[in-house]
Amino acid sequence: MAGKPKLHYFNAWGRMEPIWWLLAAAGVEFEEKFLESAEDLEKLRNDGYLMFQQVPMVETDRMKLVQTTAILNYIASKYNLYGKDIKDRALIDMYTEGMADLYEMILLLPLCRPEEKDAKIALIQEKTKNRYFPAFEIVLKSHEQDYLVGNKLSWADMQLMELLYFVEELDPSLISIFPLLQALKTRISNLPTVKKFLQPGSPRKPPTNAKSVEEARKLFKS
Amino acid sequence: MAAKPKLYYFDGRGRMESIRWLLAAAGVEFEEEFLETREQYEKLQRDGRLLFGQVPLVEVDGMMLTQTRAILSYLAAKFNFYGKDLKERVRIDMYVDGTLDLMTMIMLAPFQRPEKKQETLASILQKAKTRYFPVFEKILKEHGEDFLVGNKFSWADIQLLEAILMVEELNASVLSDFPLLKAFKTRISNIPTIKKFLQPGSQRKPPPDTHYANLVSNILQF
């Protein structure tokens, strides 16, 4: 019996969060090993576990996978969340890469200087409202299906869910102007595996706060 | 007969160069439309062909594909440069993602403020020699094969050759401690389609200069 995937990262959202959402959607249980000190990271590096000296790292199927996109591609393929053919996959990739660009802004938010924060938040709101959410609203409108690609749940829907939840916490008014996105959010939230992930007690973490940022900063310095 | 892929970008390397390499490696002819003015760019945006309002854009097989990595993955799969199974694919993805991280640093360098340039170049060379090149030297040493994955020419090989040549443009002796990478470079450069791409008159673009940096920052308005 294959062991559960083991996720190595800080106890924070960062680059591991999309991976939790995807595993959760696939109904896959996983373990987490949190880096709590610079020594923890150093040990992983010295043991040769981190191909490019960086986390996230996911141990699964006797491999030590690194590079967020590579990990997500693998999980999506393995659990049939990657469309039915190369063209579906191209669409899923295009959508998730765009979402990753937006997510990168969100991920870096806790690390910015306090005086920059308001401007960065405003930028996220602007890009969400004018660039990213309209694109996905149009996609949903164009085919009128329940999911973004191929009439089937995929990684693209899960990545979008992650963003919808985050943006809603940041500014609920941003979602209210996109009815199809709202409907998708409700629909996917009710899928059994996703519903479970959204409940308290699941591996889902609260947004990264100032304290965990300070802890992460000490680790990032190395 | 399928139409040739058409690439929309600036007349320079940037984020499109890896795509040109992949098409060239596959021996596929392609057309290019160069963005020279802000008006051209805005027209593309208004035409609705840019999902997130950004280039690169590649029209291929009836799709308008944007997002560099999505385009590269599609072409890699299409031309059988993506390994034979999921395990080979995840290795290719990891290697490519690492290489792309290094190449992104190089790509962004021309847009840095002049006072940061030296520091950036030093950082690129340091990362190449201590974080990225050792990994690939080790991979080649461990399996003793001609190519990075599965004893077969793949996207990972193309991406690594492109990265090696770019870093050598910054410092010609960067491979001095990496004998297997030197041999790899020669070997891959001699593959007929690659050899052709490396010759003058091909669609390969020269290193970016100030003129290119100004063109891009004017069109993208940053």
UniProtKB/TrEMBL annotation, chain B:
Residues 3-83 form the GST N-terminal domain. GO terms for molecular function: glutathione transferase activity. InterPro entries: Glutathione-S-Trfase_C-like (IPR010987), Glutathione-S-Trfase_C_sf (IPR036282), Glutathione_S-Trfase (IPR040079), Glutathione_S-Trfase_N (IPR004045), GST_alpha (IPR003080), GST_C (IPR004046), GST_superfamily (IPR050213), Thioredoxin-like_sf (IPR036249). This is glutathione transferase. It comes from Cebus imitator. One of its GO terms (biological process) is xenobiotic metabolic process. It comes from the Eukaryota. Keywords: Transferase. Its EC number is 2.5.1.18. Residues 85-208 form the GST C-terminal domain. PANTHER family: GLUTATHIONE S-TRANSFERASE (PTHR11571), GLUTATHIONE S-TRANSFERASE A4 (PTHR11571:SF101). The lineage of its organism: Eukaryota, Metazoa, Chordata, Craniata, Vertebrata. The keyword Transferase applies. It holds the Pfam family GST_N. Belongs to the GST superfamily. Alpha family.
